Amino acid sequence: MEFQTKYITSEIKLSCYEDKLFKTEVVFDNHMLIWFISGETKIIEANKEHVFNAGDIFLIPRNQLATIINYPKDGLPHKTVVMHLSAKRLRDFYADIEVKHKVQVSQQILSFSHHPLLKSCLASLIPYFDLQETFPEHIAALKINEAINILRFIDPEIDNVLSDFREPGKIDLVDFMEKNYMFNMPLEKFGYLMGRSLSTFNRDFRKAFNRSPQRWLTQKRLELAHYQLVEKHKKPVEVYMESGFEDLSHFSFAFKKEFGYAPSTLVK
What we know:
The chain is of the alpha+beta class. The protein is 38% helix and 21% strand.
């Protein structure tokens, strides 16, 4: 079965996937509050991995690079309720709230697993997915505001994340790319996250690395894949998903072209 999504509003959805796995590499424009009903998700960030299962609740901040791999588990589909916390909705919420922002705002995934208040809030949305008529906007606003208030009650520091509406500023290109090359993002998105237009990104990249971004990214991803196969003893099907390749056949072809042998020869 293909990936299925049911929206009750543009900001609240129920997603369900029953196939073997679903992989995507994303940078969300909105903060994403997610409650797991069933299945398993592995989220790979630049310096950390997370595994979430049934009952887990977590927040993925906007503009956060991540590889997301979703699996069915225990005979049940991968099923989640997802709430988009949009900038517009959050601006309205924080319009009359004064927040003293920290200079450095954490962009790491935040876990609120099994918290009864959040679980109750998100579980209460389930019946609405069976509505035939349009879901009333004022009720959607109430549910989203309820979730934001619960997050603020659970985590006093969450205001620094939710009320930060700044766009990415110009940052060190070399440091960012060395930490995030494994994410298969369009070059425009890499540029945006470093505060650069595509043309400026390409110019600065060639100046820093003395080669094209595409060639450098392929080389770095192949080096990472080789390390994971040899040192971590991972299987090729795991490696291609975690090192930025589109699919297994493309990965195998590029790997053999670079090293002279297929990745399967390194599997013990």
